[in-house]
Specification:
The protein contains 9 helices and 8 strands. By secondary structure, it is α/β, with parallel strands linked by helices. The structure holds 2'-deoxycytidine-5'-monophosphate (DC).
Length: 223
């Protein structure tokens, strides 16, 4: 029986940090699905594709070759032979990823890839629709949340640690805008699966969240 873990939630709730640590702790492969949507967004931005045009976006996405690899356990994304792992982390790409991810053919291509990956090996997969669409039979489903203000505070802290200046109020506004688009899109909107465990991380440390999800996983394993 597969032991896949699905982690969903809004931007900045700590999904990727938690998923990466859990994967390492439990010996599973971490799959960051947001990175796949980001890669498609980067491709569209580089080609000056109009993000408002479904036809243009889908055309570009269906022609692209995307692969995931691992270096020292860290996921790398390869777009048409180029490693774009770093390039997909800019704020422009974040906003564009949320826009290209509304289109059905973009989603179905990436969802198919994600399902194939989870068939090959047990994964901790994070995203917006993992528990609802990609892995509806996941062994454990977690919905991670935190208040928008707290998520903006964490993002700002991350940027400051990298020596970058930032405006926390602007980050919060961008987070709220992305939440609204991700939750209100027609296809596979961000929502908690009925059988997912909700974990509000607003007042929790990373270690506490990892311990909490590990306990949920172990409780299921013992059943
Ligand atoms: O998790 P992230 O911030 O890297 O995701 C970037 C965008 O990609 C997010 O705003 C919505 C989209 N996304 C999605 O629609 N479905 C997923 N499974 C993962 C991400």
């Amino acid at each position: 029986m597969s032991k896949n873990i699905a982690i969903d939630g809004p931007a900045g709730a700590g999904k990727s940090t938690i998923a990466r640590m859990l994967a390492e702790k439990l010996g599973l492969v971490y799959v960051d699905t947001g990175a796949m949507y980001r890669t498609m967004a980067l491709l569209c931005l580089r080609r000056s594709v109009s993000l408002a045009s479904e036809e243009e976006v889908v055309d570009a996405v269906l022609q692209a070759e995307i692969r995931l690899g691992y270096e020292d356990g860290v996921q790398q994304v390869i777009l048409n032979g180029e490693n774009v792992t770093e390039a997909i982390r800019s704020p422009e790409v974040s906003a564009a990823a949320s826009r290209v991810s509304v289109y059905g053919p973009v989603r179905s291509r990436l969802v198919r890839m994600q399902q194939e990956l989870a068939k090959e090996t047990d994964v901790v997969m994070d995203g917006r629709d993992i528990g609802t669409v990609v892995l509806p039979d996941a062994f454990l489903k977690v919905f991670l949340t935190a208040s928008p203000a707290e998520r903006a505070r964490r993002r700002a802290q991350e940027l400051r640690a990298k020596g970058e200046s930032c405006d926390e109020a602007k980050i919060e506004a961008e987070i709220r805008e992305r939440d609204a688009r991700d939750m209100n899109r027609e296809i596979s909107p961000l929502k908690q699966a009925e059988d997912a465990e909700r974990v509000d991380t607003t007042r929790m440390t990373i270690e506490e969240v990892v311990a909490c999800v590990t306990a949920l996983y172990q409780k299921k394993t013992e059943r």
